[in-house]
Amino acid sequence: MTLFSAPTDPWSHRARIVLAEKGIGIDIVNVEPGRLPEDLLDLNPYHSVPTLVDRDLVLYDSRVIIEYLDERFPHPPLMPVDPVTRAQFRLAMYRIERDWYRLLQQIEREPDKKQALKHKKVLRDTILQSVELFKVKPYFLSDEFSLVDATIAPVLWRLPHYEIDLPRDSGQPIVKYASLVFSRHGFRDSLSDVEQEMRAF
Ligand SMILES: N[C@@H](CCC(=O)N[C@@H](CS)C(=O)NCC(=O)O)C(=O)O
Question: In this prediction, what percent of the chain has a pLDDT beyond 90?
Answer without folding.
Answer: 98
